[in-house]
Design a protein that fits this description.
Elements (H helix, E strand, L loop, with lengths): L17 E2 L9 H7 L9 H18 L5 E6 L2 H12 L5 E6 L2 H12 L3 E6 L8 H11 L3 E5 L1 E2 L4 E2 L5 H7 L3 E5 L18 E3 L12 E6 L1 H8 L12 H8 L11 H17 L1 H21 L15 E5 L6 H12 L1 E2 L1 E2 L8 E5 L7 H14 L6
Parallel strand pairs: 1-12, 3-4, 3-5, 5-8, 8-9
Antiparallel strand pairs: 2-10, 6-7, 9-10, 11-14, 13-14
This protein binds pyridoxal-5'-phosphate.
């Protein structure tokens, strides 16, 4: 007998939000339009051409010529896991630079693939120096070193000068997390000698969550080709995915076709604006935000030369309930800002200006809200 549902559900109506937190950011209207197209078959010639376009666009925003560059089905964490699953063999030494929440996630994932995980740690809000990294490479002799470029939990942008050269000198592959930098913060993967990198669709690219751009160079491909045994994760296995995204077009899993429509449009919009113009826009709007907050007497958590344009951490003044303030902005004004994560929980707000949301009017809006609403939360 049919069980009656007993449920009465109204048609979906999503409240309007301005997402100025750590992600997702709002999607560009043209991306939303692309997403609402009818799907086509994932082996349709139209779609096959579109796949090649997405790959070319990703290579451009990453400034790489890596053949194996594609959007993984899944969010940024899926692409993160893909780098580890494909490149780590059991027992190998995997070194992670931990200076925030996402470094810890990398270490956790690598341990699940039986890596011998070593870590170097910095206080949340700081970055690694080349000397820190060299000392750790000498001490642990890792075969892979992973680092987060844009640490969304702290608002720090890791300077990348000389790190790739160092990894080559000590014969180690370099993984870079570019989840909160792709499209919005200068990135030069090939110049920086990064061997594997990943990102997401919902931060700097202004597309909804659902895809995790992934790339690996020839050095990493060689390691993958020479590995003993299968990649211990079927869904994220690049040797299989390569047969779909490469010239063979062998079915692996049904691609999330509409998400790929969306990311194509998102990437096209970046190219239309100009990659460097997008980087400059993010920088300019972030600087205006920092200045406006400081004029109000608020303090930023990260010193200026390490600040990330896409995400700013603002210290919560003494005596203010940071969570209640963020909730007030959301409920009363539909504006989302983030709270602190991990070690910074309760200490900072996180304000994101990513992709489509990095606009002068949004900077003004959030500054005006801090100006008018924060005094109401002072004891
Ligand atoms: C958001 C984020 C991730 C995880 O991406 P998801 O899309 O949430 O899975 C990984 N690394 C960094 C630095 C991030 O900001």
């Amino acid at each position: 007998m049919l069980k009656t549902s007993g449920i009465s559900v109204a048609p979906l109506s999503v409240p309007e939000r301005l997402l100025l937190g750590p992600g997702p950011s709002n999607s560009h209207p043209l991306v939303l339009e692309a997403l609402s197209s009818q799907p086509v078959g994932h082996l349709d010639p139209f779609y096959i051409d579109l796949m090649a376009e997405v790959q070319d666009l990703l290579r451009h925003v990453w400034q790489t010529s890596n053949r194996l560059t594609l959007p993984m089905s899944g969010t940024g964490s899926a692409a993160m896991e893909a780098t580890i699953a494909n490149i780590i063999q059991p027992g190998e030494t995997f070194l992670v630079g931990i200076k925030g929440y996402f470094g810890n996630r990398l270490a956790d994932m690598a341990s699940r693939y039986q890596a011998d995980v070593k870590t170097i740690v910095k206080p949340w809000g700081e970055a690694f120096s080349v000397d820190d990294i060299e000392a750790a490479l000498i001490k642990y002799k890792p075969s892979v070193f992973a680092l987060v470029h844009a640490e969304t939990s702290t608002g720090v942008c890791q300077p990348m000068k000389d790190i790739g050269d160092l990894c080559r000198r000590y014969d180690c592959l370099l993984i870079l997390d570019t989840v909160t930098s792709l499209g919005s913060v200068p990135l030069f993967l090939d110049e920086w000698k990064v061997d594997l990198a990943y990102s997401c669709s919902q931060k700097g690219l202004s597309c909804p969550p659902g895809l995790g751009p992934f790339t690996m160079n020839q050095r990493a491909e060689e390691k993958l080709n020479n590995r003993k045994g299968k990649v211990p994760n079927w869904y994220l296995d690049l040797s299989l995915l390569n047969q779909y995204w490469g010239s063979d077009r062998v079915y692996h899993h049904t691609a999330p076709v509409n998400m790929n429509f969306g990311i194509r449009e998102a990437l096209r919009l970046i190219v239309e604006e100009g990659l460097e113009n997008s980087w400059d826009r993010h920088r300019k709007n972030a600087e205006d935000l920092w200045q406006g907050l400081e004029v109000m007497g608020l303090e930023l958590h990260v010193k200026e030369e390490l600040r990330l344009p896409t995400l700013s951490t603002v210290k919560i003044p003494k005596g203010i309930d940071g969570k209640a303030f963020a909730l007030h902005l959301l409920n009363k004004f539909g504006v989302e800002i983030g709270g602190g994560l991990g070690e910074l929980a309760g200490q900072v707000w996180r304000i994101g200006l990513m992709g489509y949301n990095s606009q002068k009017k949004n900077v003004e809006k959030v500054l005006n809200l801090f100006d008018s609403e924060l005094p109401k939360f002072k004891e």
